[in-house]
């Protein structure tokens, strides 16, 4: 019987990185791609087949920006921008295209009360030729270049990264008026 992946967190400092997919390849096929520590990977569980992952302490980046934008310090914003770029460079270096990058797909987690880190999550629409995942999914408007072909490429993710950095720095999505997302 083929085991499927049930978790969906990733961070550039993780020791384990599993691309999430409802119909995942067997665990043995994607584990060799793993080598990244803040995934929150806790181990394999047998009661509900899959991986047991930690929960992010502060929910999605989207929600965190909506609720706390005016109080987020410049050093935290800089750190988040770096973490976004590093996490995408990490997955692209392993042949994975996320295909749905937006603030909802980054989670905010604090290991200590003042250390807010971002974890990349939700690989349900990912593309990975090595694993036979075609994703066929694109990000939301504002995070997808409307002048591009409707296909998931590294360029799709890179455009989305720029839009996420914009949201981190300004508090609103590109191509939308300031205010609630």
UniProtKB/TrEMBL annotation:
The record's section on InterPro entries has:
Kinase-like_dom_sf, Prot_kinase_dom, Tyr_kinase_AS
Q: Which EC numbers does the record give?
A: 2.7.11.1
Question: Could you cite one Gene Ontology molecular function of this protein?
Answer: protein serine/threonine kinase activity
- State the source organism's domain of life: Eukaryota
Q: Where is the Protein kinase domain?
A: 1-181
Catalyzed reaction equations: L-threonyl-[protein] + ATP = O-phospho-L-threonyl-[protein] + ADP + H(+); L-seryl-[protein] + ATP = O-phospho-L-seryl-[protein] + ADP + H(+)
GO CC, sorted alphabetically, is: nucleus
- Please cite one Gene Ontology biological process associated with this protein: mitotic DNA damage checkpoint signaling
Task: Describe the function of this protein.
Answer: Component of the EKC/KEOPS complex that is required for the formation of a threonylcarbamoyl group on adenosine at position 37 (t(6)A37) in tRNAs that read codons beginning with adenine. The complex is probably involved in the transfer of the threonylcarbamoyl moiety of threonylcarbamoyl-AMP (TC-AMP) to the N6 group of A37. BUD32 has ATPase activity in the context of the EKC/KEOPS complex and likely plays a supporting role to the catalytic subunit KAE1. The EKC/KEOPS complex also promotes both telomere uncapping and telomere elongation.
* Known partners and oligomeric status: Component of the EKC/KEOPS complex composed of at least BUD32, CGI121, GON7, KAE1 and PCC1; the whole complex dimerizes.
Q: What is this protein called?
A: EKC/KEOPS complex subunit BUD32
> Which lineage is the organism of this entry classified under, starting from the top rank?
Eukaryota, Fungi, Dikarya, Ascomycota, Pezizomycotina
